[in-house]
Design a protein that fits this description.
About 50% of the residues lie in helices and about 15% in strands. By secondary structure, it is an alpha/beta fold. It folds into 2 domains: about 230 residues, Malonyl-Coenzyme A Acyl Carrier Protein, domain 2; about 70 residues, Alpha-Beta Plaits (2-Layer Sandwich). A 4-stranded parallel beta sheet has the order 2-1-9-10, sandwiched between helices. A hairpin with a 4-residue loop joins strand 4 and strand 5. Helix 2 runs parallel beside helix 7 and helix 8 crosses helix 9. The longest helix is centred in the middle third of the chain and has 21 residues. It is globular, with a radius of gyration of 19 Å.
Length: about 300
Amino acid sequence: MSKTVLFFPGQASQYVGMGKDLYDHSAAVRTLYELASDAIGEDVARLSFDGPAEELKRTRFTQPAILLHSLAVLSVMNDDGFEFDYAAGHSLGEYGALAVCGAMSFEDAIRAVVKRAALMEDACVANPGTMAAVMGLTEEQIVEVCREASADGVVVPANYNSDAQIVVSGAVAGVEKAAALAKESGAKRAIMLEVGGAFHSPLMEPARDGLEAYLGDVAINAPKRPVIANVTAKEVLDGEDIRRLLVEQVTAPVRWAQTMSFLRDNGVTRIIEIGPGKVLTGLARREMKPEQSINLDTLEDIHAFAGANA
């Protein structure tokens, strides 16, 4: 029997103007944006809708803005229109997956991501770093490249995005050395990324510690549907396991390629991406070869989906 997964995008999926039609349409959505703005101390609706893009790209704002967009789609859908079997999100997107499965309330997910984003931005300032995307090397080759490059500064695999693309993260000198070594090892491309810091690396340790303290007081329940955790690429069904893995996720690699393999092997043939952009469905089309992939980003997308499934 065909199965469906809901995907929730992560950082770099944002765009100026995202979510405005949903905000204008729904009072419930406006309430979520107000909650986030109060927690951040900035008007996140204005930043999402009007930019400027450079400000929206700041980790402190990007992460809550993307999660809000995903939760806005769910709020407008109001639990009508789709059944699903699994949920998964890329990095911060994991909070959207947990929210749709009832492991966290929408409000707690927003507050947690506001805290996470602030902690990660602070860690970026305290421990400057960067990331690079490498195409065309195996996981084993990337591990060896990082091991050798670490002589110049800490560098680790950070995002296993697909069989063809792995992102490395760490100190600037270490990542630059890894990119050079990757090319020497036969990588098709090794591209330095324009990011605020060394996400999913040991340089995020201060953020991990802060998030662990914060999540200790957040209610996290057993999800109503299985969530595939970034850290393990396996089902997580227990609230305390979720809490632990959300903390580990800050410094551990995102195993997205392995997540897609798990879903494919467990009969998932339909993907619905909830929120801004089409990054995850693009990866899935190449890796999972789904029978159907759908993006729910705008109010028009939601109306089209509801009409097709009426």
